[in-house]
Specification:
- With 90 residues, the chain is of the alpha+beta class.
- It has helices at 16-29, 59-62, 68-79, and strands at residues 4-10, 36-42, 47-51, 54-58.
- Strands 2-1-3-4 form a four-stranded mixed sheet.
- Helix 1 (16-29) packs across helix 3.
- 20% of the residues are buried.
């Protein structure tokens, strides 16, 4: 299965740096499991993370940005549920 992660970020809010940092964190942690990470420009304060087409985090729904640890756990639960994330699991 090809695992594709997409981060849609608001260009008006200038959240590209935040999105690219999160993409780097996920690519570093899941270098064997993720086949692709895409950054998709958006507007209106959006910061959404989709994995294989399924929304796994939405800033609008949560009222906040995801923590790196939280996003790693959400991705892990789909791409490799048995994987130990070390300090990110504590």
């Amino acid at each position: 299965m090809n695992n594709r992660l997409t981060i849609t970020y608001c260009t008006q809010c200038r959240w590209l740096f935040r999105a690219s940092w999160m993409a780097q964190e996920l690519l570093t942690t899941f270098q064997e499991e993720l086949d692709e990470v895409a950054l998709r420009p958006g507007t209106g304060g959006t910061f959404d993370v989709h994995l294989n087409g399924e929304l796994i985090f939405s800033r609008a729904e949560q009222g906040r940005f995801p923590e790196s640890k939280e996003l790693k756990q959400l991705v892990r639960d789909t791409v490799n549920p048995d994987r130990d994330l070390g300090h990110s699991d504590r």
